[in-house]
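Bit of a strange request maybe. I'm writing a small parser for structure token strings and I need a real example to test against, not something I typed by hand. Could someone generate the tokens for this chain?
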Amino acid sequence: REEAAFHELVLRASDGGDPARTGTARIRVTVLDVNDNAPVFSQAEYTVRVPEDVPVGSTLVTITATDADDGLYGRVKYSIQKATEKASQIFLLDGNKGAITLLQSLDFEECNSYELNVQAHDGGALFDKTKVVVTVTDVNDNVPEISMRSALREISEDAPSGTVVALLHVRDRDSGANGEVRCSLDKDVPFRLEKSFDEYYRVVTARELDREQEAAFHELVLRASDGGDPARTGTARIRVTVLDVNDNAPVFSQAEYTVRVPEDVPVGSTLVTITATDADDGLYGRVKYS
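Reply from user aminoacidic:
Good idea to test on real output. This should exercise your parser:
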């Protein structure tokens, strides 16, 4: 029937006269269909690549199978025969049209590939199978994360250069260039950023500190930028208080005080007030006279 659905025959009957006379009859033979053809998928395997930010409800791929039979035997319906529980929650197969749509958002970092075994069956008992592989591609949807493993909140101003102030770990859940992180520390601070190994960094003093000349505390801003386009940046802040040491002597306001007083000045009179200041803080900055 699939080669020819009907046949037209012409039957002729001729007598023995001279001239002969002929009669004709037409016979139309219609071939009735039986379910002798299984559905056939257009591809043995369907592979589709989609970015992880594809909108929910999008049609990812449409599978097609054809059946050479007619009527009920030629009507193809689709069903998922095998898939993980997660894939069953994420993808929806239209049993009549063969369209596979997205039910939930994809996350490359959670799973980057899904496999569905799909069957096409006709109105009888015949079927065909195919495999659908959905590959999820990464987009730069994660900001680099900076986590402090340890950090000094206070440091003495006489700490030697190279003293470790903080240890930190940096990571980006994206892959490829989107997950390649570069770290930096704001300039104009007496600290520098050094890479320890892999994704670990440390903040150390770049030189000797001077609480009196620079600042009593430093606000350090760490930045981690990935290689995406556009790049995404994560930040972290460390506030480091510089503790005072007694590295400054008191200094008089004058090297010598000269005062002239009459000889009959009353006992107990204030003749002069001398002043000295000390740049240090707290106990180290309290000046007494003797």
